[in-house]
Amino acid sequence: MTISLIHVNPNTGLSASISATGGVSVGGYVNHSWRGVGACATQGLFTNPWYADKARELFILGTTAAQVVESLKAGDAEYSKRQCMVMDKNGDSAFIHGDDNIPYVGSIAYPTIAVAGNMLESDKVLQAFSDSFITQATQNPSSILEDGAPVYRDNYEAELPEILITALEAALQAGGDKRGTFSASLRVESLTKAPIDIRVDWADRCLISELRKVLGRVREAGFQDFLNNLPNR
Questions:
Q1: Which of 45, 110, 128, 194 fits 174 for a cystine, CB–CB 3.0-4.6 Å?
Q2: Could you tell me the pTM of the whole model?
């Protein structure tokens, strides 16, 4: 199993992603965020790690999410073993759900927000994932769930790592991975701040607690001072 959420804010250029899996070191292979460009999560029965490089190249050229997915499929004779979601700088998303992936396989897409997963307990996992993110980050969750456009809370980007972890927690509580979930990765890329990149490569017990422990270190005053003095570009 792997489950991922990607988010792009077209108004600010921010790109964020979080992924978790029943295997080791999900952050080395799955979720990718590129400020001002887009985002990608490449997963599935056998992840194709080269999808991210190709997607980023195409996004820089102005290719839409739907066109990127068609290009990825055209260049991969075994895309039936992949699950992939991409989101362009406008917040539009597109997906690959290969027929050889292990059920439950699915995705949910809203403007600027998308989730996808495979080998899940049920579709409730994805709904809990997206619902939690939307409830925390937006001013109008009810209208988004009825196909409205998101209106984000003021300064939500400052709390985005916490929002992503809580959304992942909701997904895992809804069933998560049939095998258990042992590694996770979170990435937030902004045009105005240093990136936040948090990874737990293996947690025997509570993965969410380990993620929050690392984020707590990132939030400490000394490290925040370090981040605030880094160049933005």
A1: 128
A2: 0.97
